[in-house]
């Protein structure tokens, strides 16, 4: 039982990370119907900046983190301002290709700037810190991950439901032309979406890096793992991204924890495919994801 | 108050939609803009409200003046702030948002909370049905209620000129009549209205003045009463045969007849 609870706890923490990264995708998608394939690389740049700030420039973690967030927010805003803004009204596919371009550029910049070797991740905790409850070890980093995610989700909920800009974003997501006709400045909405998404994703990346202790230029692939989570939750659903993330985290950690007890034919890599299996299964039952709306076009 | 001078619009740099249309809307009047499908009515509204770029359209000639100032280069946000709000064809309410949220989205350019409250109260008294359903999802409203919400949402910005694109579209006759009365009421409170309609009878019954648009040009402009009376105009331009509502098929047939018609006019 303790083993199971331990796995559930670890799975929930991992799920929260997918949720944060997934939130980045769905906020941008919801606002502008763009799947941002540069999401992983935004996160990559952010975690490298945080790691450098701590290890090379000896900044305290709590200063390095906002610095990393700031850098990715600026990249997100610049990209939105200089590139995407000119593409408003173009086919989503064109825009999607452009985000892939940004992805490649950012990854190259990271390799040029930091080299391609593995570097230790910045972390404010000792690896073993935490405490035990009923035989379950609650690690500090996992606790923080879960706590940060819950607080952030509550803040986002408040933002979307009860603020002018939140309303503007939801309205724009539903009908861009109608929003424009109301005088909503859609360009500001896009900028806001990119800034928010960049920051939240980077936060997810930094938390993931703490967990994995080290980062390398492939670290951005974490975003690909978050992808089933948002498809599962429904591409255009913000709460769906969170729930999808937690489902994926739980299933992948639970399979990893029990797969050694399964017959050898199933293999030990099962936990890497379960997220995709779950995704396919759910999409067969609900083609638009758990919380997605019917209008979303399949890309 | 609003003046369009020889406005020409093309889409994607090649498709002409307006070819030098001129039109004037004095303060506090209702102007009807009539014409068949594809005549350029919606395009004309987009030119005023600044929505052309979204459709990859651009003003390639003429100018649009609001209180003497050119507004044809301004953003939609700016134009709403100056007092012109458009209600899009097909209602286009935010169906996942509540009625209240829809209305507040309409007031997004308004900074003054007192002004928002005043506009909100006005909308609630104009549309008591909306007051009853403030917190229900707008997507669950009936077609007529959605049209009222679309108009109410536009009124939240307290415009001095309201642009309405086919508000009677797809509504039952009694609802068309209600929309007509609401337009009259809005106008009575001092808001000018540019009313685009296929339902010419309804439009002319509430308008002071009417324009007929055909393939991007104004082919007729006259007081509404005159347009309603003159038998030729009624039949050839407005497609009205005593109370009969035209079907799309009928309109297509008319379009062919109109070629002969034009010769007769010149
Ligand atoms: N987004 C667009 N891109 C290209 N051409 C367009 C676009 N919108 C309208 N047009 C063209 O411009 C012309 C005028 O169209 P518009 O929509 O203004 O007509 P309308 O009078 O509103 O017609 P309806 O009664 O059908 O609404 C038409 O020939 C139409 O095909
Ligand atoms: Mg139209």
From TrEMBL, chain A:
<keyword id="KW-0813">Transport</keyword>
<dbReference type="InterPro" id="IPR052157">
    <property type="entry name" value="BCAA_transport_permease"/>
</dbReference>
<protein>
    <submittedName>
        <fullName>Branched-chain amino acid ABC transporter permease</fullName>
    </submittedName>
</protein>
<dbReference type="GO" id="GO:0005886">
    <property type="term" value="C:plasma membrane"/>
</dbReference>
<dbReference type="GO" id="GO:0006865">
    <property type="term" value="P:amino acid transport"/>
</dbReference>
<feature type="transmembrane region" description="Helical">
    <location>
        <begin position="6"/>
        <end position="29"/>
    </location>
</feature>
<dbReference type="InterPro" id="IPR001851">
    <property type="entry name" value="ABC_transp_permease"/>
</dbReference>
<dbReference type="Pfam" id="PF02653">
    <property type="entry name" value="BPD_transp_2"/>
</dbReference>
<feature type="transmembrane region" description="Helical">
    <location>
        <begin position="222"/>
        <end position="250"/>
    </location>
</feature>
<feature type="transmembrane region" description="Helical">
    <location>
        <begin position="143"/>
        <end position="160"/>
    </location>
</feature>
<comment type="similarity">
    <text>Belongs to the binding-protein-dependent transport system permease family. LivHM subfamily.</text>
</comment>
<keyword id="KW-1003">Cell membrane</keyword>
<keyword id="KW-0472">Membrane</keyword>
<dbReference type="GO" id="GO:0022857">
    <property type="term" value="F:transmembrane transporter activity"/>
</dbReference>
<feature type="transmembrane region" description="Helical">
    <location>
        <begin position="189"/>
        <end position="210"/>
    </location>
</feature>
<feature type="transmembrane region" description="Helical">
    <location>
        <begin position="65"/>
        <end position="83"/>
    </location>
</feature>
<keyword id="KW-1133">Transmembrane helix</keyword>
<feature type="transmembrane region" description="Helical">
    <location>
        <begin position="95"/>
        <end position="115"/>
    </location>
</feature>
<feature type="transmembrane region" description="Helical">
    <location>
        <begin position="262"/>
        <end position="285"/>
    </location>
</feature>
<keyword id="KW-0029">Amino-acid transport</keyword>
<keyword id="KW-0812">Transmembrane</keyword>
UniProtKB/TrEMBL annotation, chain B:
<dbReference type="InterPro" id="IPR003593">
    <property type="entry name" value="AAA+_ATPase"/>
</dbReference>
<feature type="domain" description="ABC transporter">
    <location>
        <begin position="2"/>
        <end position="240"/>
    </location>
</feature>
<dbReference type="InterPro" id="IPR003439">
    <property type="entry name" value="ABC_transporter-like_ATP-bd"/>
</dbReference>
<dbReference type="InterPro" id="IPR052156">
    <property type="entry name" value="BCAA_Transport_ATP-bd_LivF"/>
</dbReference>
<dbReference type="Pfam" id="PF00005">
    <property type="entry name" value="ABC_tran"/>
</dbReference>
<dbReference type="GO" id="GO:0005524">
    <property type="term" value="F:ATP binding"/>
</dbReference>
<keyword id="KW-0029">Amino-acid transport</keyword>
<dbReference type="InterPro" id="IPR027417">
    <property type="entry name" value="P-loop_NTPase"/>
</dbReference>
<dbReference type="GO" id="GO:0016887">
    <property type="term" value="F:ATP hydrolysis activity"/>
</dbReference>
<protein>
    <submittedName>
        <fullName>ABC transporter ATP-binding protein</fullName>
    </submittedName>
</protein>
<keyword id="KW-0813">Transport</keyword>
<keyword id="KW-0067">ATP-binding</keyword>
<dbReference type="GO" id="GO:0015658">
    <property type="term" value="F:branched-chain amino acid transmembrane transporter activity"/>
</dbReference>
<keyword id="KW-0547">Nucleotide-binding</keyword>
<comment type="similarity">
    <text>Belongs to the ABC transporter superfamily.</text>
</comment>
<dbReference type="InterPro" id="IPR017871">
    <property type="entry name" value="ABC_transporter-like_CS"/>
</dbReference>
<dbReference type="GO" id="GO:0015807">
    <property type="term" value="P:L-amino acid transport"/>
</dbReference>
